[in-house]
Amino acid sequence: MAKNLVGAYGIAWKGASVVTEALRAFYAPHGSADRDIAGDLDVLRRRSRQLFQNNTFSRAMISSFDTNVVGTGIKARPNLMLSEMLGLTSEEAEKWANKTKVLFNLWATDKKCDAEKTNNFFQLQDLALKTALLGGDCFALSCFDKNFAPYGMNIKLLEGERVQNPLGQMNSDALAEGIEVDKNHAPLAYYFTQKPVWSFDDYTDFVDSVRVPAFDAFGNPNVVHVFTADRTDQRRGVPLLAPVICQLKQQERYQDAELMAAVISACFTAVLENNVPDEAEELYGNVPEEERVEKTQTDSYGNVIPDATRPSLEMKPGAIWSLAQGQKISSLNPQRPNVNYQPFVESIFAEAAAACGVSFEVVLRKFNNSYNAVRAALLESQKTFKKMCMNFVADFCKPVYEKWLANAVLLGIIDAPGFFDDPIKRKLWSQCLWIGDAAFLLDPKKETEAIKMQIDEQLISRDMACAMVNGGDYRTVAEGHASELALRKELGIGEPGSVSKTENFSVTSDDPEQSALQ
Length: 518
What we know:
3-stranded antiparallel β-sheet; 14 helices
């Protein structure tokens, strides 16, 4: 008896049943991560980009991720840990980190760091993330430009379509979707097309591919690959909008239909009722013939052609139509705009945003609820943004920085003893913190007071507090305060706080009865 039940579906789990009415038409195909993606990725990319271009919510979704993850740029802050292993004192390590930070920023803020010479490094971050969100993944190659002194290194971004198998090679376990892997599924090489897919010059140029090894002789990646894996053994990513493409496209169609219905209802003031069928006239709208987009077809003498194709109905608001005998006016109430439109579409927005890990209030920038509800929506969305930021730093920022640092050490711009001799020292020299924009403070006063309490209780450092409030670092703030203090002493200006305040005016401490505004 037990042997007969082996392999039967739906015995232990109802979700596996193939006989229940709810599930017997539910077909789930077999497939590895790569096989499931390979057949659909091209269509998903094209549809995702079309939604971004034409669907307002889709564009708002991508823009929200882009703004909250990258924002104005994720800044590098070199931070040497275990400096004694590098033969440096704490002061020397701090001096080295500050020098490296300045030199990297000089490279990062120069648009020559982009092979296309159109973006600086922080703008490249924005473009790389947006490309990965829309296309599933983004690739970057380091190039050398002898005219870009003293570094020579720049970055070339490529869309996912640029990575594909050489012409005539089918997908296999070793090579699929342009990525060659070893037995552990680690990348060995990438195959890039010579030109963008479907470029202007020749539609066949993209079949010529170049093999680029995944890593250089020092173990640093030659190819930067930005994507998020949802399964093991997955070598390509899918667009962020992939799970909600169907819902968002249907919502777009519904929105267009509701908008058109509202426009038409605004044009209608009255309709004509005719009790004499033989005298009924065709309705062509109330737009004069000379103003119509689609003209009525006439012959060379200006007479209307009887059998010609009927022109489309064209209407404009505020017109008065004359009535024929036997006709009467009947009021028209099309019930547009639809009062149920907003709650219906917001339910779609809420599900689509939740599928991507954020609150729809954050996507739409719509904060109409209570303070606690809005704060909860912001904090929940920040979890997703922080996670994506961490992944983006690991996939893009960190490899680019390490490549730049190795190049700077090789050229003698930065001194890092043992960098190329000891892998552990190379990792220690390459340690870096990445600081993004500060999170939005819904109530700055309350949240600043909360941060101050955390500092007083020694739960966070002042450096962490600066990163939370303005995305900066405490050393820069402290050096600014020291410079301002010296300037005030030089000019004989009192310290901030020496001016007392009344309820309505700021007054000097020397004469509290006299307003400073008088």
